[in-house]
């Protein structure tokens, strides 16, 4: 009897795994008690809802599988308790049908997720904003004119170097007065589509804007682009989501979303400061190192 009671105890203990797992997620999503603000950060990207919907869909799907697996394990441990059954164990060599079923079901589930997320992936990773569809009047063709990046963000151990490419006093881009160099302080205008070019100077980094649902690995030797449209002013985090060395923990920047007038004022102030010092990155690089 003692052996049987221990078997039943272990089956109940395994049952607590899905129960406590679901409860933890539920309390975290409700943001009550010690789990306040432990769930997703506020979404301030006009197009971030697609990412959230995809995240919740996969969470609920895998959560249902997790709960079902836990309940099945509990049922088998409880029903086939060795202390309650005196019949000898019966072994089988295997079941081809069962093997086919448990191979097809996960494969079909992953295929469904892959197809379900195709539009979200394309919108976030492939369909860069276009400002002119060209003479054929069709988007996605070779004569499309893409929106130029507001800034080039370069990951470097252990900081984010930001170079704005804006028309200087001459009103033209590509001249000597255009580049504005900043470190770890990205400013963008609110309610406007923004394109950023991201690069890496040394190792693999990951450019992550949690509040805008933007995350892209930054690969050395490659020019990549991210785009978004912030719909709320405020100050948010820029972090590196890829272990990039001993100082990875401090590779953190600041994203400021502000009105167009405040953004233009900030840019003018930074240009003036940069021209007055004549050494645009010396102070910032010294402080960061």
In short, what is this structure?
With 289 residues, this protein is of the alpha+beta class. It has helices at 2-30, 48-79, 96-116, 118-125, 260-277, 282-288, and strands at residues 130-132, 145-146, 151-156, 159-165, 179-183, 185-189, 193-200, 205-209, 214-218, 224-229, 234-240, 252-258.
What's the SSE pattern? HHHHEEEEEEEEEEEEHH
Report the strand count. Answer: 12
Low-confidence stretches: 280-289
| CATH architecture title of the largest domain | Sandwich
Can you lay out the helices and strands and say which pair or pack?
Layout: H1 2-30, H2 48-79, H3 96-116, H4 118-125, E1 130-132, E2 145-146, E3 151-156, E4 159-165, E5 179-183, E6 185-189, E7 193-200, E8 205-209, E9 214-218, E10 224-229, E11 234-240, E12 252-258, H5 260-277, H6 282-288
Parallel strand pairs: 3-7, 6-12
Antiparallel strand pairs: 1-2, 3-4, 4-5, 7-10, 8-9, 8-11, 11-12
Helix pairs in contact: 1-2
